Model the fold of this input.
Amino acid sequence: MSSSVLQQINTAMVTISSMSDIFNTDPTTPAVNASKYGEVGLLLGLKTSGGTGQARIEAYSCTDATKADGEEIDYLWRKATTTDNFGAFTKAAAGSSDRCLTTVGATLNDQYHVIVRSRQCKANKPFVYFKLVEVVNDPVVAGHCVLIYGKPSRSGATIPSGL
Done:
């Protein structure tokens, strides 16, 4: 009997964070090596109580985990249209007005799912990180986690231990 799809796909949480003013100081996530996996994803949940702050989500490709040479890249994003149903993915081009701009809804704990496929990385810049750029300064209670997922590359990569 063949293994299930879930058994064939490696998934690991790299980081999780929650805070009462998540967009303050334009935070970035840790950088993860997307070349070893199919995709790097960001899950962002915004709580309805709190401020009306907004952030623009940006994705970057860089040489290593230091993020010293980050270059903005395209990504795909979608938003939950109900508490358990995400809408279709939208392509966000680097530096364009179609990048995801978060909102805090009145009746829903808004959720965003952002992905970067490893092929979207710039040449010789296999690491990916996300940045939440504050565009409306008002505290928002929120949390996020960064995931790496997909089948390991032919190089035999495995999910890093200790994540």
About this structure: Residues 12 and 159 are 7 Å apart (CA to CA). Residues 13-150 form a domain with the Jelly Rolls fold (CATH 2.60.120).
